[in-house]
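Structure representation:
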Amino acid sequence: MRVEVLGAARQVTGSCLLIHCGGRRLLVDCGMIQGGGKQEARNREPFPFEASDIDAVVLTHAHLDHSGRLPLLIRSGYQGPIHTHRAGAALCDILLRDAAFLAERDAAIENKKRRRRHDDPVEPTYTVADAEAAIEALVGHEYDQAWQPFPGITVCLRDAGHILGSAILEIWLEEGGERRKVVVSGDLGHPGAPILRDPKRVEEADLLIMESTYGDREHRSWDETWAELGEIFSSARAQSGNILVPAFAVGRTQELLYILARHYEEWGVGDWSLFLDSPMAIEATEVYRRFPELYDQETADFYAAPENHPFRLPNLRLTPSAEDSMAINRVQSGAMVIAGSGMCNGGRIRHHFKHNLWRQNCHVIMVGFQAQGTPGRALVDGARELTLWGEPVRVGARIHTVGGLSAHAGRSQLIRWAEHFRTDPVIALVHGEAAAMDSLAEGLRGSGHQVLTPEEGECLDLRQWPGRSAASPAGSGSEAPGG
């Protein structure tokens, strides 16, 4: 019984774990590596295992840094199921198709240039057909209901509160009379965040594999965050400018629409021409609308009122077509544009930057994590110029980093979640930049925990630690599966 850390090791993206038990192999996540060009080129490298040897896959959630290489896994020979929450499966349908479409488009553009230079053509990272094969393999589950992907391993999904359908994995292993329990946090949500419930507490594990994205940072309180956003709206209105919000299509966009509805009168949202300029975000919002049973109580109560329509505002205009998107840039004042990509390394937000970023009265609101090497990270770090399509664009706009809107738990919230374990598991940190991971590790060690920060390819042998957790799902310290 062992776990190989094959991705998101001392970095944020590319989540991938391989669990061995009883001669079988369970892959947890198969995520894209995101960031600069050199990092993203690694997505084309062969897997460090034979895809055909994998017996089953479990996906924590739909974001591409956890799901984005699944089409490559299928193309490489994997033929089994991909287990995830049923809402996560619906979001994967959107995200994987979009990623494949963009890969094919980018390869076609590059090959035009190559033909002129008489260079060899390139292949897309994967095709729409590859994505469709991965989507066909998805198997949807509910929270709190255990199942066996194969004998010797039992899995149960718990609500992680990060995006719709995101899951903490409880995994019970049995081999040769020995039993161990592994918990994989996936991405833990920000407690108190809009729409979704807070991350479920789990109490027993022998090994806890936990994210550390914000391991060195705290978030502002929700009251401070609402006040900060209100001030941004007031300042932008006084300057008669536009507001640009680079937002992830899944999760962040839906939270923004809900927040704007809740503060519609207070912030004068109705004074703005509000555009949702992302075909993928429009589709993802429809998926969010289909799963009201996953909302927290406050959101359920708000949308129960007949005057509140889920994720629709009176002044919201959806712009799925390229023509509608281009028309937005004729608006010189009073436009609020929510567009992808969240890290500004693609999508329509870059076109809006070209028309607005140099303006002194433009306001850009950064509402999500920005990986190293991305244009979004450059803006957050104070860049005074961005290169867009080979041309420099001066940054005259005011850049606001609203960290309180993060969909990830902050440092103290991560520590509190880990401290609810009664069995004092060994903790292995993944999914974080080195500084954040090391800071969180120090904080957890200060509380008496044994903490590892494994390198990529490192193997964690569960037999070296005595089994201290429940022997079966029925004995779990958290709510019993099916309860």
